[in-house]
């Protein structure tokens, strides 16, 4: 028997610095209502979906910085999203900047949550692969200070929800094969992935014309090699003078794009996703138990920043 989820990739156009949380939440609510009207059970929003991409600026005033973060979820301005989800019976994935106080220490993360159709949080993920830089680099047309504003998360996990095993990732995570494989080894059947990606890469402008190709390449490969659905969703368009790619899409375990957005504005791409399609790949070509041989990979281990080389292998004629 098939396990079907109707999924909406809820792309957002640009969010300017002057846009209020109320303005942005209204756009998210419009996506929820439209997706519900089209029979969806799950809506996937982008990374940092509640604000402009603030790491493009170097800021020192703590109050100015804190204004971009959520100290609770749901909070006063986001509670309506959870209430609407519960009323409509529709779940969602949401990326945002998290400000947490843990053991008396203030911590900042680039975070996403998965919310069920009952309006309750199923799981929370903190971005592992932070791109960019930590120090102010004035030579750039815009900054990419994720290493300055966030600390990295610690793990990739999966959660039971929507009739299957769901994983989460964020933006730069999608470029690393380990992201998909760690969740694939846990049986992930759908990976939800929001991103904010500029067209221009200041350290390597020769990559600019390939930005959309690379965006789809890594997600399609991750889906196929791990027999999982991948839902990649952008915040796109010209945001505060920075052009960001779109290309939001839903990718089947075959690696094929089955639905995609065609603009750089607020748009839904919807697909009927059968989680049982994962079995066709997980039980044959990518049956890890039968075919995968980690003992032969010669993996290195990292200890306190030092790299320990793999043991030497004697080669005989």
From TrEMBL:
Highest taxon of source: Bacteria
UniProt KW keywords: Hydrolase
Record-linked SUPFAM superfamilies: Carbon-nitrogen hydrolase (SSF56317)
Pfam families membership: CN_hydrolase
UniProt GO molecular function: N-carbamoyl-D-amino acid hydrolase activity
EC number(s) stated in the UniProt entry for this protein: 3.5.1.77
Domain CN hydrolase: 5-277
Protein's name according to its UniProt entry: N-carbamoyl-D-amino acid hydrolase
């Amino acid at each position: 028997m098939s396990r079907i989820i109707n999924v909406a990739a809820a792309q957002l156009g640009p969010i300017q610095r002057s846009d209020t949380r109320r303005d942005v939440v209204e756009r998210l609510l419009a996506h929820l209502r439209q997706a519900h009207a089209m029979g969806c059970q799950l809506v996937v929003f982008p990374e940092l979906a509640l604000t402009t991409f603030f790491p493009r600026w170097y800021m020192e005033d703590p109050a100015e910085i804190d204004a971009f973060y959520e100290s609770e979820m749901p909070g006063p301005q986001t509670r309506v999203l959870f209430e609407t989800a519960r009323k409509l019976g529709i779940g969602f994935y949401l990326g945002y900047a998290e400000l947490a106080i843990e053991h008396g220490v203030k911590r900042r993360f680039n975070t996403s949550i998965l919310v069920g159709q009952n309006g309750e949080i199923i799981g929370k993920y903190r971005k592992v692969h932070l791109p960019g830089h930590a120090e102010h680099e004035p030579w750039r047309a815009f900054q990419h200070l994720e290493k300055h504003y966030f600390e990295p998360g610690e793990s990739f996990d999966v959660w039971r929800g929507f009739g299957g095993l769901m994983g989460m990732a964020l933006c730069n995570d999608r470029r690393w094969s380990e992201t998909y494989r760690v969740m694939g080894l846990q049986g992930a059947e759908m990976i939800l992935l929001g991103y904010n990606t500029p067209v221009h890469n200041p350290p390597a402008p020769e990559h600019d014309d390939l930005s959309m190709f690379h965006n789809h390449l890594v997600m399609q490969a991750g889906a196929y090699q791990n027999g999982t659905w991948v839902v990649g969703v952008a915040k796109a368009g010209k945001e505060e003078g920075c052009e960001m790619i779109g290309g939001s899409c839903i990718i089947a375990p075959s690696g094929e794009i089955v639905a995609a957005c065609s603009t750089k504005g607020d748009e839904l791409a919807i697909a009927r996703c059968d989680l049982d399609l994962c079995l066709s790949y997980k039980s044959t070509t990518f049956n890890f138990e039968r075919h995968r041989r980690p003992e032969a990979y010669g993996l290195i281990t990292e200890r306190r920043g030092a790299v320990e080389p793999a043991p030497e292998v004697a080669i005989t004629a």
